[in-house]
Protein backbone atom coordinates (compact mmCIF):
# COMPACT_ATOMS: atom_id res chain seq x y z
CA UNK A 1 0.00 0.00 0.00
CA UNK A 2 1.33 3.44 -0.94
CA UNK A 3 0.45 7.01 -0.03
CA UNK A 4 -0.35 7.61 -3.69
CA UNK A 5 -2.97 4.84 -3.64
CA UNK A 6 -4.57 6.38 -0.55
CA UNK A 7 -4.57 9.80 -2.24
CA UNK A 8 -6.32 8.25 -5.23
CA UNK A 9 -8.86 6.57 -2.96
CA UNK A 10 -9.67 9.82 -1.15
CA UNK A 11 -9.90 11.71 -4.45
CA UNK A 12 -12.52 9.26 -5.76
CA UNK A 13 -14.59 9.57 -2.59
CA UNK A 14 -14.47 13.37 -2.71
CA UNK A 15 -15.10 13.57 -6.48
CA UNK A 16 -17.96 11.01 -6.42
CA UNK A 17 -16.86 9.34 -9.70
CA UNK A 18 -13.72 7.68 -11.04
CA UNK A 19 -13.85 9.94 -14.10
CA UNK A 20 -13.94 13.20 -12.11
CA UNK A 21 -11.21 11.96 -9.78
CA UNK A 22 -8.95 11.10 -12.73
CA UNK A 23 -9.56 14.57 -14.18
CA UNK A 24 -8.67 16.28 -10.90
CA UNK A 25 -5.52 14.15 -10.53
CA UNK A 26 -4.49 14.64 -14.19
CA UNK A 27 -4.10 10.90 -14.79
CA UNK A 28 -5.84 8.38 -17.03
CA UNK A 29 -8.95 6.75 -15.60
CA UNK A 30 -7.48 3.32 -16.40
CA UNK A 31 -4.41 4.14 -14.27
CA UNK A 32 -6.62 5.25 -11.40
CA UNK A 33 -8.78 2.12 -11.59
CA UNK A 34 -5.70 -0.12 -11.66
CA UNK A 35 -4.20 1.51 -8.57
CA UNK A 36 -7.46 1.20 -6.63
CA UNK A 37 -7.76 -2.45 -7.65
CA UNK A 38 -4.20 -3.06 -6.41
CA UNK A 39 -5.10 -1.37 -3.12
CA UNK A 40 -8.18 -3.57 -2.75
CA UNK A 41 -6.14 -6.71 -3.47
CA UNK A 42 -3.53 -5.77 -0.87
CA UNK A 43 -6.14 -4.93 1.77
CA UNK A 44 -8.25 -7.95 0.74
CA UNK A 45 -11.46 -5.89 0.75
CA UNK A 46 -13.68 -4.23 -1.85
CA UNK A 47 -13.76 -0.46 -1.33
CA UNK A 48 -16.31 0.61 -3.96
CA UNK A 49 -19.60 -0.80 -5.17
CA UNK A 50 -18.97 -0.79 -8.93
CA UNK A 51 -22.54 -1.80 -9.81
CA UNK A 52 -23.65 1.80 -9.30
CA UNK A 53 -23.10 4.81 -11.54
CA UNK A 54 -21.34 6.85 -8.86
CA UNK A 55 -18.38 5.73 -6.76
CA UNK A 56 -20.38 4.32 -3.86
CA UNK A 57 -18.36 3.16 -0.85
CA UNK A 58 -18.76 -0.30 0.61
CA UNK A 59 -18.79 -0.75 4.39
CA UNK A 60 -15.03 -1.40 4.24
CA UNK A 61 -14.54 1.76 2.19
CA UNK A 62 -16.47 3.83 4.72
CA UNK A 63 -14.22 2.52 7.48
CA UNK A 64 -11.04 3.24 5.51
CA UNK A 65 -11.95 6.77 4.37
CA UNK A 66 -11.55 8.72 7.67
CA UNK A 67 -8.37 6.81 8.51
CA UNK A 68 -6.93 7.55 5.06
CA UNK A 69 -7.75 11.25 5.37
CA UNK A 70 -6.17 11.37 8.83
CA UNK A 71 -3.03 9.59 7.62
CA UNK A 72 -2.59 11.87 4.59
CA UNK A 73 -3.05 14.99 6.72
CA UNK A 74 -0.49 13.62 9.15
CA UNK A 75 2.03 13.12 6.35
CA UNK A 76 1.34 16.62 5.04
CA UNK A 77 1.88 18.09 8.50
CA UNK A 78 5.09 16.12 8.91
CA UNK A 79 6.44 17.48 5.62
CA UNK A 80 5.59 21.03 6.66
CA UNK A 81 7.45 20.56 9.95
CA UNK A 82 10.49 19.20 8.13
CA UNK A 83 10.49 21.87 5.40
CA UNK A 84 12.94 24.27 7.15
CA UNK A 85 15.48 21.43 7.48
CA UNK A 86 15.24 20.02 3.97
CA UNK A 87 17.86 20.53 1.30
CA UNK A 88 17.39 23.98 -0.24
CA UNK A 89 17.25 22.34 -3.67
CA UNK A 90 13.84 20.98 -2.67
CA UNK A 91 12.56 24.56 -2.20
CA UNK A 92 13.10 25.83 -5.73
CA UNK A 93 9.85 27.23 -7.10
CA UNK A 94 9.56 27.43 -10.89
CA UNK A 95 7.26 30.27 -11.95
CA UNK A 96 6.49 30.88 -15.62
CA UNK A 97 5.21 34.36 -16.49
CA UNK A 98 4.13 36.39 -19.48
CA UNK A 99 6.11 39.65 -19.92
CA UNK A 100 3.42 41.61 -18.05
CA UNK A 101 4.71 41.81 -14.48
CA UNK A 102 5.59 45.51 -14.71
CA UNK A 103 2.23 46.59 -16.15
CA UNK A 104 0.31 44.89 -13.36
CA UNK A 105 2.74 45.91 -10.59
CA UNK A 106 3.52 42.30 -9.72
CA UNK A 107 7.31 42.67 -9.51
CA UNK A 108 7.17 44.29 -6.03
CA UNK A 109 4.76 41.59 -4.82
CA UNK A 110 7.08 38.78 -5.93
CA UNK A 111 10.05 40.60 -4.43
CA UNK A 112 8.24 40.92 -1.09
CA UNK A 113 7.37 37.21 -1.22
CA UNK A 114 11.02 36.30 -1.83
CA UNK A 115 12.15 38.52 1.06
CA UNK A 116 9.60 37.05 3.46
CA UNK A 117 10.44 33.45 2.44
CA UNK A 118 14.24 33.21 2.17
CA UNK A 119 13.96 29.41 2.34
CA UNK A 120 12.37 29.44 -1.15
CA UNK A 121 14.38 30.11 -4.29
CA UNK A 122 12.02 31.72 -6.80
CA UNK A 123 13.03 30.93 -10.39
CA UNK A 124 11.08 33.20 -12.77
CA UNK A 125 11.01 32.34 -16.47
CA UNK A 126 9.52 35.14 -18.61
CA UNK A 127 8.29 33.75 -21.93
CA UNK A 128 5.60 34.35 -24.55
CA UNK A 129 2.21 32.62 -24.59
CA UNK A 130 2.94 29.40 -26.50
CA UNK A 131 6.09 28.29 -24.63
CA UNK A 132 4.37 29.24 -21.36
CA UNK A 133 1.35 27.10 -22.24
CA UNK A 134 3.51 24.16 -23.32
CA UNK A 135 5.74 24.38 -20.25
CA UNK A 136 2.68 24.52 -18.01
CA UNK A 137 1.11 21.44 -19.59
CA UNK A 138 4.39 19.52 -19.45
CA UNK A 139 4.98 20.35 -15.78
CA UNK A 140 8.03 22.55 -16.34
CA UNK A 141 6.45 25.24 -14.15
CA UNK A 142 4.89 24.80 -10.71
CA UNK A 143 2.78 27.92 -11.29
CA UNK A 144 2.28 30.44 -14.06
CA UNK A 145 1.10 34.04 -14.32
CA UNK A 146 -0.86 34.63 -17.51
CA UNK A 147 -4.31 35.20 -18.94
CA UNK A 148 -7.27 32.78 -18.75
CA UNK A 149 -7.39 32.41 -22.55
CA UNK A 150 -3.94 30.83 -22.43
CA UNK A 151 -5.40 27.97 -20.38
CA UNK A 152 -8.16 26.97 -22.82
CA UNK A 153 -8.32 23.18 -22.92
CA UNK A 154 -6.00 22.77 -19.92
CA UNK A 155 -7.44 21.41 -16.67
CA UNK A 156 -6.24 23.97 -14.14
CA UNK A 157 -7.10 26.09 -11.11
CA UNK A 158 -6.82 29.89 -11.26
CA UNK A 159 -6.62 32.74 -8.79
CA UNK A 160 -7.40 36.26 -10.07
CA UNK A 161 -4.46 38.66 -9.73
CA UNK A 162 -5.61 41.70 -11.71
CA UNK A 163 -8.64 42.96 -13.60
CA UNK A 164 -8.11 44.51 -17.02
CA UNK A 165 -10.14 45.20 -20.16
CA UNK A 166 -9.60 45.61 -23.88
CA UNK A 167 -9.63 49.13 -25.30
CA UNK A 168 -9.69 50.43 -28.86
CA UNK A 169 -6.64 52.20 -30.27
CA UNK A 170 -7.14 54.49 -33.27
CA UNK A 171 -5.07 57.21 -34.93
CA UNK A 172 -5.71 60.58 -33.25
CA UNK A 173 -7.55 61.87 -36.35
CA UNK A 174 -9.80 58.82 -36.77
CA UNK A 175 -13.60 59.50 -36.84
CA UNK A 176 -14.04 57.36 -33.71
CA UNK A 177 -11.28 59.10 -31.74
CA UNK A 178 -13.56 61.59 -29.99
CA UNK A 179 -16.19 59.06 -28.90
CA UNK A 180 -16.62 58.32 -25.15
CA UNK A 181 -17.13 54.61 -25.97
CA UNK A 182 -17.48 52.49 -29.10
CA UNK A 183 -19.63 49.38 -29.75
CA UNK A 184 -17.32 46.61 -30.93
CA UNK A 185 -19.61 45.79 -33.86
CA UNK A 186 -18.94 49.25 -35.36
CA UNK A 187 -15.39 48.10 -36.09
CA UNK A 188 -16.45 45.44 -38.60
CA UNK A 189 -15.24 47.56 -41.52
CA UNK A 190 -11.88 48.47 -39.99
CA UNK A 191 -8.43 47.02 -40.67
CA UNK A 192 -6.76 45.64 -37.56
CA UNK A 193 -3.21 45.18 -36.38
CA UNK A 194 -3.17 42.70 -33.49
CA UNK A 195 -0.74 40.75 -31.36
CA UNK A 196 0.70 37.48 -32.67
CA UNK A 197 -1.87 34.71 -33.43
CA UNK A 198 -0.33 32.46 -30.76
CA UNK A 199 -1.01 35.05 -28.04
CA UNK A 200 -3.93 34.89 -25.65
CA UNK A 201 -4.80 38.52 -26.49
CA UNK A 202 -5.15 37.67 -30.19
CA UNK A 203 -7.54 34.83 -29.32
CA UNK A 204 -9.45 37.12 -26.95
CA UNK A 205 -9.85 39.80 -29.65
CA UNK A 206 -10.89 37.26 -32.26
CA UNK A 207 -13.51 35.69 -29.99
CA UNK A 208 -14.90 39.08 -28.94
CA UNK A 209 -15.33 40.17 -32.58
CA UNK A 210 -16.88 36.86 -33.61
CA UNK A 211 -19.42 37.15 -30.79
CA UNK A 212 -20.46 40.47 -32.36
CA UNK A 213 -20.97 38.81 -35.72
CA UNK A 214 -17.85 39.67 -37.70
CA UNK A 215 -14.38 38.37 -38.47
CA UNK A 216 -11.79 41.13 -37.96
CA UNK A 217 -9.72 42.03 -41.02
CA UNK A 218 -6.24 41.52 -39.56
CA UNK A 219 -3.69 43.06 -41.92
CA UNK A 220 -0.68 42.60 -39.65
CA UNK A 221 0.41 41.11 -36.33
CA UNK A 222 3.19 42.55 -34.19
CA UNK A 223 4.47 43.24 -30.69
CA UNK A 224 2.79 45.94 -28.61
CA UNK A 225 5.31 48.71 -29.26
CA UNK A 226 5.08 48.12 -33.03
CA UNK A 227 1.28 48.04 -32.84
CA UNK A 228 1.15 51.43 -31.12
CA UNK A 229 3.56 52.94 -33.66
CA UNK A 230 1.57 51.52 -36.59
CA UNK A 231 -1.72 52.87 -35.21
CA UNK A 232 -0.11 56.29 -34.69
CA UNK A 233 0.97 56.23 -38.34
CA UNK A 234 -2.63 55.57 -39.45
CA UNK A 235 -2.00 52.02 -40.64
CA UNK A 236 -4.92 50.40 -38.78
CA UNK A 237 -6.79 50.24 -35.48
CA UNK A 238 -6.09 47.79 -32.68
CA UNK A 239 -7.42 46.22 -29.49
CA UNK A 240 -5.11 45.94 -26.49
CA UNK A 241 -5.41 45.55 -22.71
CA UNK A 242 -5.67 48.98 -21.11
CA UNK A 243 -2.82 48.36 -18.64
CA UNK A 244 -0.36 47.82 -21.50
CA UNK A 245 -0.72 51.51 -22.28
CA UNK A 246 0.90 52.45 -18.96
CA UNK A 247 4.13 51.48 -20.70
CA UNK A 248 3.35 52.04 -24.38
CA UNK A 249 1.67 55.37 -25.10
CA UNK A 250 1.80 57.70 -28.10
CA UNK A 251 0.50 61.24 -28.46
CA UNK A 252 -0.96 60.40 -31.88
CA UNK A 253 -2.98 57.43 -30.61
CA UNK A 254 -6.50 57.75 -29.18
CA UNK A 255 -7.55 55.23 -26.52
CA UNK A 256 -11.30 54.57 -26.44
CA UNK A 257 -13.26 52.23 -24.12
CA UNK A 258 -15.49 49.57 -25.63
CA UNK A 259 -19.18 50.08 -24.92
CA UNK A 260 -19.46 46.52 -23.61
CA UNK A 261 -16.27 45.76 -21.64
CA UNK A 262 -14.22 42.73 -22.69
CA UNK A 263 -12.23 41.37 -19.74
CA UNK A 264 -8.48 40.83 -20.19
CA UNK A 265 -7.68 39.65 -16.68
CA UNK A 266 -4.45 38.22 -15.27
CA UNK A 267 -4.40 35.04 -13.18
CA UNK A 268 -2.08 32.82 -11.18
CA UNK A 269 -2.63 29.22 -12.30
CA UNK A 270 -1.59 25.71 -11.35
CA UNK A 271 -2.62 22.27 -12.54
CA UNK A 272 -3.83 21.34 -9.05
CA UNK A 273 -3.26 23.17 -5.73
CA UNK A 274 -3.22 19.81 -3.92
CA UNK A 275 -0.31 18.58 -6.04
CA UNK A 276 1.84 21.68 -5.64
CA UNK A 277 5.13 21.32 -3.73
CA UNK A 278 5.18 23.05 -0.35
CA UNK A 279 6.92 26.12 -1.79
CA UNK A 280 4.24 26.34 -4.49
CA UNK A 281 1.44 26.14 -1.94
CA UNK A 282 3.17 28.90 0.02
CA UNK A 283 3.09 31.26 -2.98
CA UNK A 284 -0.50 30.27 -3.78
CA UNK A 285 -1.59 31.12 -0.22
CA UNK A 286 0.43 34.36 -0.33
CA UNK A 287 -1.55 35.61 -3.32
CA UNK A 288 -4.84 34.25 -1.95
CA UNK A 289 -4.53 36.01 1.41
From TrEMBL:
Entry's Gene Ontology molecular function annotations: DNA binding; DNA-binding transcription factor activity
Xref: PROSITE patterns: HTH_LYSR (PS50931)
Key words, A-Z: DNA-binding, Transcription, Transcription regulation
Domain HTH lysR-type: 1-58
Alphabetized CDD domains for the sequence: PBP2_LTTR_substrate
Top-rank taxon, per record: Bacteria
Entry's Gene Ontology cellular component terms: protein-DNA complex
One Pfam family linked to the record: HTH_1
SUPFAM superfamilies in UniProt: Periplasmic binding protein-like II, Winged helix' DNA-binding domain
Family label: Belongs to the LysR transcriptional regulatory family.
Protein name per the record: HTH-type transcriptional regulator GltC
Source organism of the structure: Hungatella hathewayi
Amino acid sequence: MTLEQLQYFVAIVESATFFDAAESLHIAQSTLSKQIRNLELELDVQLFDRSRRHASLTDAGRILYPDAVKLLKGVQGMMQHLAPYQDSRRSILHLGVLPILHQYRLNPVLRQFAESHPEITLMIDEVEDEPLRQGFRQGSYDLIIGRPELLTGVQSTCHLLAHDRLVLLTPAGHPLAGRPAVPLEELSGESFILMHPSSSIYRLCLTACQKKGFQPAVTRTAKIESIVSAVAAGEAVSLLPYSNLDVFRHENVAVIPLQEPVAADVVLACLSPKKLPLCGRTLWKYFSA
